[in-house]
Amino acid sequence: PQGIPNNLLPFVAQVAVGRLERLNVWGSDYPTPDGTGVRDYIHVVDLALGHLKALEALARLDVQKECLTVNLGTGKGYSVLEIVREFETASGKPIPYKIAPRRPGDIASCYADPKQALTLLGWRAERGLSEMCADAWRWQRENPQGYAG
Description:
By secondary structure, the protein is mainly α. Helix content is about 40%, strand content about 10%. It has one domain: UDP-galactose 4-epimerase, domain 1, CATH 3.90.25.
């Protein structure tokens, strides 16, 4: 990928490394504990392992009859501000942010139900938010320009 991916953790990491001045938080009036949007964040390693489990399942199944979609997620939602606070802890850096108006189409909360992944694939996410933020910060610190180069 070129440039900054369009999801929360890379933006937070770019603020922590000093590449961006601040994070825009789109809305603070959602019916969530802190008013910011809640999403299911998954560690990239857990996602990759889930994909491998899906490929193993495809090799066992008659895909003409038994192919279906399985969502991979943790089953737990975190708010934007929870992510910011956890990333501040992982990086030891403040994450300045500005509350901005809601974006059209954004919903208050969205997270996966991972039961089907466990039942059909024998997979579940194993890494939590603190490990996710620590690993994202480690990568960003070692690659301050991201994927450029």
